Amino acid sequence: MKEYTFKYQNNSGLLYLLLVLIGIPFGLIFLTVWLMEYVQWIFWPNIVLMLSLMVFGVWRFVKKSKAIDTITLDKEGFTSLSYGRVLYKDIHSIPPYGPLQAPPPSMRIKLNNGKKLVWLFNPDHPQSAVEAITFAAFREELLHHLEQQALAPQGGNPGENTATSLVSQIEESKKRDYRYIAIPISAVFALVMLFRTCGADFIKQQRDKETAGFRDAILDMEKTYETNVLKAKDVAAVYGLTFGPVFLWTNDPRATVVFRPDIPRDPYGAEINVIGLRHAEDNKLLEQYIQHPDSVNYDLTIVNTAEKFYAVMNKSIFSREDSLTVPIYLTVYNPKESLPSPFSQKVVDSTFRPIRYSTSIAIPRAGEPKSEILDHMDFASVRSILKKYRGTYFYMVAKEQDGISAQQFEKIKILVLKNFEEHKVDTEQFESRRCNSE
């Protein structure tokens, strides 16, 4: 019986090696790059921590991996100080290591019960060269015994094929001749410095890209809003024609009457004053309106684009729903004058509020209109403002949809004109128009 004693490395410390080569460097590099945005001085303390952990990992790897084995071979098998008694017939395979796994003459044996025997060497190290030669001699002796097992008659025992396979596996393992591939520690430091010098610039570039993308999205939202407004105006202009003609009598030479869509907003939605974001909900409502213009109500509205003035024409607060009458809408507007504050108001408000007042009078649906329709407080209020404040615009509007024809509107206009003349209201600039028609 021959005996072989040698020092070797096992795979018990493999976890520490992986931590030293991959886990600790990449983990702390990522942590350092992230923390430097908040703590500028964290780089060098983290480098010291990384080196300390790597030194500790190397020490644990060396301590856990070192071992001494004494192997004695005989005709039936071999006895190992590290792994115990092993019979040749219990060996399942001896798979050779790949180029990136372990250098020669490292070897592993897999038993039928699943147990693995591992001997690792680094022949490039001066202290390991002698141990590698001793282990190579053990491997040659093991090969000799397995060849004897393969040549011996087995009486149909399948162990013959197994021994032959083991011999070929050891022969293949002996043919390996390459250097062990390792990552030098200098490469790790070079990687750290690369992240130190380029990491900040990379993060800044990424943030600039994100900022530019956010800015472009905001500007795109603003452009979309402007486009939607123009589309909505075109849709409203076309759909408003379905309500029929509107008759206007006014002293405002640039005024017209349109049906303006009343697009409701979410009363519980937050007001966002950031440019672009504030139109996110508006775009959604406008797009819904453009697709379904009949889904909202429309207000009869006086518009003067030059004066940037518009006013929704409302019925009088004293009016009642009556199938026998129809409304005539009245509005006055003076951009340069303001109504006096009530005497009961204790707090003085210096804010200028131009005169803007809308109301209506009711006329009978059937029969000729009479002057009695003007004996109403709402009409008197409008007339009083028009007479007292020079430069006041007056608007009288009626809808053909309510059943008022052009002839009826002309008769009402004559009654109002006569009333104004009696109360010395200047009517020289007044003219009639037909609006909301092709």
Automatic annotation (TrEMBL):
Sequence intervals crossing the membrane: 12-35, 41-62, 178-195
Protein's name according to its UniProt entry: Uncharacterized protein
Domain of life (superkingdom): Bacteria
Keywords: Membrane, Transmembrane, Transmembrane helix
